[in-house]
Amino acid sequence: MKKLASFLKSTSGNVAITTALLMFPLMTGIAATVDFSNYVSQRSKVQNATDAAALAAAKELETAPNSTEESLKTYATNFFNSNVGQEIDPNNYTLNLSLIPGNPDPSAPANEQQDRVNVTVDFKYDTIFYGILSRESIEGEIKSFVTLGNRTVEVALVLDNSGSMSGSRISTLRTEAKNLVDIVHNSASLSTLVDPVQFSIVPFSGTVNIGTNNRNESWLDQRGYADPHHENFDWDTYRTNNSTRYQESGGVRYGFQESVNGSWQWKTRWDVFDMVGTQWGGCVEMRPWPHNVLDTSANAIQSYSGVRNSMDADNDGQNDGHNALFVPYFAPDEPNYFYAREEDDDVTNFGFAPDVEHRIDDDSYRNDYLYDFQDYNPSNPNQRIQLYTNDNSGNPAFGRRNSDRQIERTNFMFKYQRNIQLNGSLNSSHGPNDGCRTRPITELSTSRDDIKNEIGRMQASGTTNIQQGLTWGWRTLSERAPFTGGRPIDELKNLKFIVLLTDGNNFYSTDGDSTPNQTAYGAWGYARVEGQQNLRNPLTNTHTSNRWIEGLESADLADTIYTAGTFDLTPESNNDFEKIMNAHTNQACVNIKNDGVSIYAVAFAVPQTGGVRQLLQACAGSGIRPDGSPVVADGTFYFDVDQGGLAAAFEDIARQITNLRLSG
Predict the structure, then answer these.
(1) Same domain for 485 and 600?
(2) What is the number of domains present in the chain?
(3) 327: how many CB neighbours lie within 10 A of its CB?
(4) Which segment of 196-205, 246-255, 355-364, 437-446 scores lowest on mean pLDDT?
(5) Phi and psi, residue 582, nearest 5°
(6) Tens of pLDDT along 101-113?
(7) Is 363 inside any structural domain?
(8) Could you give the angle at which helices 168-186 and 646-662 cross, rounded to 10 degrees?
(9) What is the C-alpha end-to-end distance of the chain, expressed in Å?
(10) How far apart are alpha carbons 72 and 448 in whole angstroms?
């Protein structure tokens, strides 16, 4: 500063000479700055107009695929002119457009495999200070290309809504899941494709709710074909004055029927819902293996003929198509916690006679919503026929704890009949929908608001069944029934993702002494094994297979109660359940990825014990193409975060999906 002040005060002649010498470069610099600033401003305007013209031409080509290069050039030029404005002389730019076919070589870079629209603008800027700069114009070339069909994405949010997610965890999940949806949707704002982004939501706990709006769909077992449909129902105890029968063909039973007003009617779980005066809650049972770990199409034919025994839904040569149907969830009435003993042989029509003794059983069974000890008389609907038992050693009490009769009481059908005829309502807060607690699935939707609103409605309750959530997430992305909204799996411009989040291990309650089966009822039914009465399918008149252990290897069952030679025992440990559920979940993960669906898995503040981290790490990964190559070449698929880290994890996942969508 001192030197500058001294220079300005100088009166020597050298100052004038120096100033004269510096004037030309100073003026040249000012002129260059002004012209360069104007050039950058105009170039930016031209670049924006070029990008818009290229995108418009690409959209036009998607709409009219037979368009020629010349017609697209005219379309792009008009679009460019309307955006560049009047500030730029039309004589100062020339627009050219070309269509670049994609490289059919699968080893070529991904962004070269698709057709592209290439727009080039030769742009000229007339300088203002030509006399100073000795340069009449500044010229340049501006390019913009749009890949035709930059990829569409379908994302299933498979989110744990179990009870452990309550409080701040579910609140955090709601917030960050909405943010993920926003990031992915924002990337599609300039997409050339129809429906570039679709989301589905699968809230899961111990069960998954597929929505009561699907009550009459053909992929739900309407006729009682599937093996789990009649578990815990002993139709031989159904009371009727008409001739009840099983329809048979070649020794195979196809359904239980009753003649009503001269018309044969099938008896199914749907009828039992009607008997107890309760609507189906929307949840479904886990299908028997292998369908529980597959996306087998459930468009099985349902008729009154022998079709049931000839369905082969997964084309494996086995007549198991009936088990591809989805069975409505029905938690059976569990035995009353008391039993009755008759002191003499009086017969009572209404209530207990004074000489009948109530005795408290060992335990109070959790899902007891009907009374077991009054039979239904179809000849006199107003009559209750009291059942009596005694507990003498020669005649065990009718359903005492640890007695086979207790399972038998679970399966009585007349108690359901008596309820609708005489009471018409349940006598507890539980019922056939007990355990069906989550919000219904939201199928694939392009509506950002609908998806975010449904995320905001999620509530935490129940246990954890990761496989049930995963397989239903897969089904929402599929073009196969039950949900057919997904694009075909071989559509190369489309990517499918599952974002799985859980805060805990697979869990199925043993419920100790609170059920006669020593296990809670859930999507897997009771954890009983072949030979138990509650697994007898009256349609085939045989015992059905155990859904828990079917399809597993001996290694999967090692160190559990199902170890070879002890299959007739009921699981006594939650660890047994977890290991077996993990084995089924692992199978499902492999099949999902082999179907081309990539899985992002988030362990959200999970406990230190249990194997959920290992399960999720193995499950996460890229989908696989039919040629064995990964759909996603690289990326981070597994995240282990605490509650505070969920925002970063979901943002990372959203950015990966966004980049993959734009890279096509």
Answers:
(1) yes
(2) 3
(3) 24
(4) 355-364
(5) -65, -40
(6) 766 565 665 556 5
(7) yes
(8) 20
(9) 58
(10) 32
